[in-house]
Amino acid sequence: LLLLLALILLAATAEAGKNKKEKVKKDGSKCEDWRWGPCVPNSKDCGLGYREGTCKDESKKLKCKIPCNWKKKFGADCKYKFESWGGCSAQTGLKTRSGILKKALYNAQCEEIVYVTKPCSSKIKSKSKAKKGKGKD
């Protein structure tokens, strides 16, 4: 009886695992080799939009979003890990840092290493230790 119970339990778990593997993707497509275009905003150069994908003779659109502070020339689908900003160059008035490709989303064509610059700060930050308005006279 114990052996029979063990066999029934084993068969039930095997059937459950089989059902998980047989599930079709949500969109009903069996195609595996999707090619995705860039995210195209609905208006201007950022915000909500869509990206088009094709696979063999199928095509579909997915909703996407480009953050409005994302003005990088290398695109929103290329994710980089950036190092700290370098020192200020006296000749150019710019500081530079590099980023190494961490992830390319939707099969995007990304550069392995990118360099970005920004103007050097003209303000000199001073660390004042005096606190105003909190003490007694």
Automatic annotation (TrEMBL):
GO cellular component: extracellular region
Boundaries of every Pleiotrophin/Midkine N-terminal domain copy: 18-74
Localization terms from the record: Secreted
Keywords: Developmental protein, Disulfide bond, Growth factor, Heparin-binding, Mitogen, Secreted, Signal
Domain Pleiotrophin/Midkine C-terminal intervals: 75-136
Secretion signal span: 1-16
Superkingdom of this protein's organism: Eukaryota
GO biological process: positive regulation of cell division
MF (Gene Ontology): growth factor activity; heparin binding
Record bears the keyword Secreted: yes
InterPro entries: Midkine_heparin-bd_GF, PTN/MK_C_dom, PTN/MK_C_dom_sf, PTN/MK_diS_sf, PTN/MK_N_dom, PTN/MK_N_dom_sf, PTN_MK_heparin-bd_GF_CS
Keyword Ligase among record annotations: no
Cited Gene3D superfamilies: Heparin-binding Growth Factor, Midkine, Chain A- C-terminal Domain, Pleiotrophin/Midkine, N-terminal domain
Function: Secreted protein that functions as cytokine and growth factor and mediates its signal through cell-surface proteoglycan and non-proteoglycan receptors. Regulates many processes like inflammatory response, cell proliferation, cell adhesion, cell growth, cell survival, tissue regeneration, cell differentiation and cell migration.
PANTHER family in the cross-refs: MIDKINE, PLEIOTROPHIN FAMILY MEMBER
Family, as annotated: Belongs to the pleiotrophin family.
Protein's recorded name: Midkine
Organism listed in the record: Furnarius figulus
